[in-house]
Amino acid sequence: MSIETKTHGHLMASESAEALKVFCQAATQTVDAGRLADAKAIYTIARGSSDAAANILSYELMRELSVPVTSLPPSVFSLGAGVNMDGAGALVISQSGASDDLVRAAKGARSNGADVVAITNQPDSPVEAASETTVPIGAGPELAVPATKTVIGSVAAGMALLGGIKPEYKLRAEASAEALRGITTHHPRAKALQAALLRARNVYVIGRDTGHGAAIEVALKLKECCALHAEDYSASEVLHGPLQLATNPLMVLILDTGSDHIQESLDKAEARFRAVGCDVHRISPADIGVSDLTPAAAAAVLLAVMYPVILNTALALGLDPDTPETLSKVTQTT
Question: Does 10-180 carry CATH code 3.40.50.10490?
Answer without folding.
Answer: yes
